[in-house]
């Protein structure tokens, strides 16, 4: 019995050990970027695909997403966490252009998009989510195209947190709309429980003046949308303490030129048109729809005006058709709907089913692009698709990791001009410093976080920090970070970004090349020679052979080297000094040989003298008198 119990506990311990081992196993990080110049950035990679002739038919622009791992804020930790979440821009090949996680300490961000309506140039906007402990309830952010904060707007205290669903900057560039949730106590008379009350969350919106951050208009649904419209709560739902039932769940807000507001409520399956004075003009969808419809939708997101003239409206939205608990249709879709408020009919004019046939149970958006294509953000794993007006799938993408989602995905044309210079690091590698057989090379890494139109990089070296730069080559930019390998040990390095027309955009700071800390153990032959001296770039790059120049051009797309008269004079002086040093060394060697010869002659004469005094060698038994020695 004791043996059986012992075996049981040993088996249990083994299983527990295996379980803990599995739980502690770290995730593979191949799905994350890793950079030499910006080691703190570990943004998720994007896999994109063009379908058919899609590359010729897509709308130009960059992809705007804000990856996050979990929706709720994570508690602070003493562990080092790289920048993985937050606003990110990718190009049309899925290559990272900008990672903004470091700006707000790796906090979740939402509704990240480009804004081209603000008067002084392109901008970016997004919502920074609340802090873990509630000490910061979130805020809206507007950046200029230098990635500097132009506006940081908190929500007014009585309106709760700055909600993550929407930060919609309007076409005037001066006004923004945001969602509000507000907690109220409500008697449950509608549910036949007149003696009972519950806290509920009403839905509303705030209109914000961007230059001042002031709230100029507020609307709340508390007295206008009844509990009976909700599909999320019912007569038997237990009463709730604060904050209360989320019985409507507003998730988007837009406004037309007449000042009427279009608002989506996910848990009533309804899109509402609200007048400037606050009354509900009509309901589309849900149990109390005012329209005859040729379609159904539910749990929708991102209702927006496409066209509106007072009596006829075209709107777009994502029909999730499901939530975490139920399915209403087999596939999610993006819908464009014509709403006739005279005939009171609503008709689908475009339908885009999710191409993989799946359901988007949470989040998502539908964006009409300038060329009339549709960009659909399906949220989970960052999945997005771009389709033609006819419904042809042209372009799709998803994060390389399913561990991340994005609330929305957008596509915009945007030009980023970071205020910070490019980041650059350089390292020397090799084992043989001999001038004839040297294998030393300088490896250069450069990136410019946020620059959207860098076509390539020019690289320069200097003999000293304050000397003139020498062109050592260039290379086409193909990724977020570019690597270039230059011949020789080059000590002071800089790089220059240029666009497709050859215009210089910016230049990095001058960086001193790093030497390997353990060079001797790696086989460096010059470790015993003392301090290694860098090569003179003017000498190295103006005197190279045609074959060397051709090899470098093939390897790095290098331009012809550009000479510098000052550096040439310095190089000539160095060569003269090298000749003088060689002459002195020759004379010193000659003198040493002469001294050795003289010493050898003296020794020879000494031994010759000894041989003249000895007539024969004494025998073992003979005693040699001292005077004969």
Automatic annotation (TrEMBL):
Endpoints of the signal sequence: 1-24
Cross-referenced Pfam families: Arylsulfotran_2 (PF14269)
Region entry Disordered, spans: 541-560
Taxonomic superkingdom: Eukaryota
Keywords, ordered alphabetically: Membrane, Signal, Transmembrane, Transmembrane helix
PANTHER family, sorted: ASST-DOMAIN-CONTAINING PROTEIN (PTHR35340:SF8), PQQ ENZYME REPEAT PROTEIN-RELATED (PTHR35340)
InterPro entries documented for this protein: Arylsulfate_ST, ASST-like, N2O_reductase_N, Quinoprotein_ADH-like_sf
Keyword set includes Transmembrane: yes
Coiled-coil region: none
Record field: compositional bias (Low complexity): 548-558
Protein name according to UniProt: ASST-domain-containing protein
Residue ranges of the TM segments: 583-607
């Amino acid at each position: 019995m004791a043996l059986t119990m012992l075996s049981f506990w040993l088996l249990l311990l083994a299983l527990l050990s295996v379980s803990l081992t599995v739980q502690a196993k770290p995730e593979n990080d191949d799905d994350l970027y890793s950079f030499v110049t910006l080691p703190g950035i570990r943004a998720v990679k994007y896999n994109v695909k063009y379908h058919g002739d899609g590359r010729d038919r897509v709308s130009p622009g960059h992809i705007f997403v804000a990856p996050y791992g979990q929706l709720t804020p994570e508690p602070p930790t003493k562990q080092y966490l790289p920048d993985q979440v937050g606003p990110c821009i990718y190009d049309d090949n899925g290559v990272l252009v900008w990672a903004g996680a470091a700006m707000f300490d790796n906090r979740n961000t939402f509704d990240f998009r480009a804004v081209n309506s603000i008067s002084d140039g392109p901008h970016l906007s997004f919502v920074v989510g609340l802090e873990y402990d509630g000490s910061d309830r979130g805020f809206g952010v507007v950046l200029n195209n230098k990635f500097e904060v132009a506006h940081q707007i908190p929500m007014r205290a009585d309106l709760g947190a700055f909600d993550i669903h929407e930060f919609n900057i309007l076409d005037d560039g001066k006004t923004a709309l945001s969602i509000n949730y507000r907690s109220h106590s409500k008697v449950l008379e509608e549910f036949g429980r007149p003696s009972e009350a519950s806290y509920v969350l009403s839905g509303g919106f705030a209109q914000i003046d961007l230059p001042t951050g002031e709230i100029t208009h507020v609307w709340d649904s508390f007295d206008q949308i009844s509990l009976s419209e909700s599909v999320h709560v019912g007569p038997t739902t237990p009463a709730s303490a604060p904050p209360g039932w989320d019985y409507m769940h507003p998730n988007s807000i837009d406004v037309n030129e007449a000042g009427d507001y279009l608002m989506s409520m996910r848990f009533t399956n309804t899109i509402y048109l609200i007048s400037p004075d606050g009354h509900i003009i009509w309901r589309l969808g849900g149990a109390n729809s005012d329209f005859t419809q040729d379609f159904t939708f539910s749990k929708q997101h991102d209702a927006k005006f496409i066209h509106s003239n007072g009596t006829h409206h075209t709107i777009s939205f994502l029909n999730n058709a499901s939530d975490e608990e139920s399915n209403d249709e087999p596939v999610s879709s993006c819908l464009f709907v014509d709403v006739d408020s005279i005939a009171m009919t609503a008709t689908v004019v475009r339908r885009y089913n999710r191409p993989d046939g799946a359901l988007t149970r949470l989040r998502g958006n539908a964006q009409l692009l300038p060329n009339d294509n549709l960009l659909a953000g399906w949220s989970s794993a960052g999945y997005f698709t771009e389709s033609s007006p006819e419904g042809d799938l042209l372009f799709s993408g998803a994060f390389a990791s399913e561990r991340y989602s994005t609330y929305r995905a957008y596509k915009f044309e945007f030009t980023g001009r970071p205020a910070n210079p490019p980041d650059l690091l350089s390292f020397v590698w090799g084992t043989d410093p001999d001038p004839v057989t040297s294998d030393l090379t300088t490896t250069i890494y450069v990136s410019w976080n946020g620059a959207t139109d860098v076509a390539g990089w020019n690289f320069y070296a200097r003999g000293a920090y304050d000397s003139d730069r020498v062109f050592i080559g260039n290379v086409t930019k193909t990724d977020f970070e570019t690597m270039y390998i230059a011949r020789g040990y080059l000590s002071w390095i800089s790089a220059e970004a240029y666009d497709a027309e050859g215009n210089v955009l910016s230049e990095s700071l001058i960086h001193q090349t790093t030497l390997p800390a353990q060079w001797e153990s790696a086989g460096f032959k010059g470790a015993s020679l003392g301090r290694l001296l860098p090569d003179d770039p003017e000498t190295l790059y103006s005197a190279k052979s045609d074959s060397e120049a051709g090899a470098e051009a093939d390897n790095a797309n290098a331009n012809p080297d550009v000479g510098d008269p000052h550096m040439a004079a310095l190089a000539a002086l160095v060569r003269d000094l090298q000749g003088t040093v060689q002459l002195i060394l020759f004379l010193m060697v000659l003198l040493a040989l002469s001294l050795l010869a003289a010493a050898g002659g003296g020794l020879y004469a000494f031994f010759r003298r000894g041989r003249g005094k000895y007539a024969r060698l004494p025998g073992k038994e003979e005693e040699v008198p001292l005077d004969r020695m």
